[in-house]
Design a protein that fits this description.
Radius of gyration: 22 Å
Structural class: alpha/beta
Oligomer: single chain
Strand order of the largest sheet: 1-7-6-5-4-2-3
CATH class of the largest domain: Alpha Beta
Strand content: 5-15%
CATH superfamily of the largest domain: Type I PLP-dependent aspartate aminotransferase-like (Major domain)
Low-confidence stretches: none
Number of strands: 12
Shape: globular
Largest sheet: 7 strands, mixed
Bound molecules: pyridoxal-5'-phosphate
Number of helices: 16
Mean pLDDT: 95
Length: 430
């Protein structure tokens, strides 16, 4: 018997799995196996020919990852998902699945530094051009589009700028021109559901809030099932023309009997098969465990971060505080339109003393960890200009929202009094 619910708190505990069919185990078993015994020669050939769906080899699918995929698809209101080895693998594959040499995508400038590097450098070496546009102007996506444009790409709550992306506005442009919007929802799972605003695909890191405890790297691609790849067949030849690597299968046709899952099936049986960015079953188990408390943790992350933002706002050594709740005008409107239940767990601020003050502040912290991650249960702090975004040029840093004195906090679940006391200690040292 499966439990259905529209509530995130219930979905993360029950969607896609009730008990193990072999043992009745309630916790999801870690299927630490590479391979699966075929029932017969016909069974084996049916699985390889996709006439039947079933387990073949853990590089392509695994029963533990399957539960994570089903739960995250249910949480986001999608039809299917693919768990992969990192958030970076999710971003890469989400594009590689529909774009090839000579194609382009249009991306928001407001990106995590690693994604910026992937787009500006690695994708370029593969012949895929990324056209960066300012998300303040949704029509900029339309102006950058041509008949080789295969996707729009953006982060819901961009790390570190924290200006919420205009999902519905850009999805509407994509709807007009036949281009799917891929959203990285890493910092906003549990707060925003991009599919409800017209996005077609989610490509996120599970390493952050989904896992929630800073112990595992992984990523997820989720298919809304709503984009009509067949209607835009000329724009998406990889889904609408025979695939020589799979007996000439035309993915939109071959997968039709299984539902609107051509995009995600192709990613699984071609990209994961060939490039191998598989998630380990153990990490899938860690993410399933983390996911069970995501709604509860996000609530507290948001409460604590809002109190941190208020505390910093009034401090004489702080130049400005970057937190969606404190933004004005269109940025605040977008935050209110797209984030439900809080303004996120990330808070940035600029010290009046610039880079040197930032370093003194970070060195004086005792409770906050100084490290390159977000979304941990523990509070974290980093100076992006000298770390996560250091491989970007000064102009690129500015475009992604990284000024020299910017400090980013990922506010954790400790008692708020201890969090504020540690920040005070840091500020006293400046
Ligand atoms: N997307 C965002 C918004 C991130 O912050 C990160 C990592 O910090 C990634 C993607 C990449 O995720 P991973 O580290 O799991 O590869």
């Amino acid at each position: 018997m499966s439990v259905t619910s529209k509530h995130a708190e219930t979905i993360v505990l029950h969607a896609g799995y009730r008990k193990d069919s072999a043992t009745n185990a309630v916790a999801v078993p870690i299927y630490q196996t590479t391979s699966y015994q075929f029932d017969s020669a016909d069974h084996a050939s049916n699985l390889f020919a996709l006439k039947e769906l079933g387990n073949i080899y853990t590089r392509i699918m695994n029963p533990t990852s399957d539960v994570l995929e089903k739960r995250l698809a249910a949480l986001e209101g999608g039809v299917a998902a693919l768990a992969v080895s990192s958030g970076q693998a999710a971003s890469m594959m989400s594009i590689q699945n529909i774009a090839q040499i000579g194609d382009n995508i249009v991306s928001s400038t407001d990106l995590y530094g690693g994604t910026w590097n992937l787009f500006a450098n690695s994708l370029k070496t593969m012949g895929i051009e990324v056209r960066f546009v300012d998300p303040k102007d949704p029509e900029a996506f339309a102006r950058a589009t041509d008949d080789k444009t295969r996707a729009y790409y953006a982060e819901t709550l961009p790390n570190p700028k924290l200006e919420v992306f205009p999902i519905a506005e850009v999805a509407a442009v994509g709807n007009r021109l036949g281009v799917p919007l891929i959203m990285d929802n890493t910092a906003a799972h549990g707060l925003c559901k991009p599919f409800e605003h017209g996005a077609s695909i989610i490509a996120s890191s599970c390493t952050k809030y989904i896992g929630g405890h800073g112990n595992s790297i992984g990523g997820i691609i989720i298919d809304s099932g709503k984009f009509d790849w067949e209607k835009h067949a000329k724009r998406f030849p990889l889904l609408n023309t025979p695939d020589p690597s799979y007996h000439g299968a035309v993915w939109t046709q071959a997968v039709k009997p299984l539902g609107p899952i051509a995009y995600i099936i192709k990613a699984r049986v071609t990209l994961l098969r060939d490039c191998g960015q598989a998630l380990s079953p153990f990490n899938a188990f860690m993410f399933i465990t983390g996911l069970e408390t995501l709604p509860l943790r996000m609530e507290r992350h948001c409460q604590n971060a809002a109190k941190v933002a208020d505390f910093l706002k009034g401090h004489p050594k702080v130049e400005r505080v970057i937190y969606p709740k404190l933004m004005a005008g269109e940025a605040r409107r977008r935050a209110d339109a797209y984030l439900k239940g809080g303004y996120g767990g990330l808070c940035g601020f600029e010290l009046k003393g610039g880079v040197e003050a930032g370093k003194k502040f970070i060195n004086a912290l005792a409770l906050f960890y100084h490290l390159a991650n977000i979304g941990d249960a523990r509070s974290l702090a980093i100076h992006p200009a000298s770390t996560t975004h250091s491989q970007l040029s000064p102009e690129e840093q500015m475009a992604t929202g990284v000024t020299p004195g910017y400090v980013r906090l990922s506010v954790g679940l400790e008692h708020i009094d201890d969090i504020l006391a540690d920040l005070k200690k840091g500020l006293d040292a400046v």
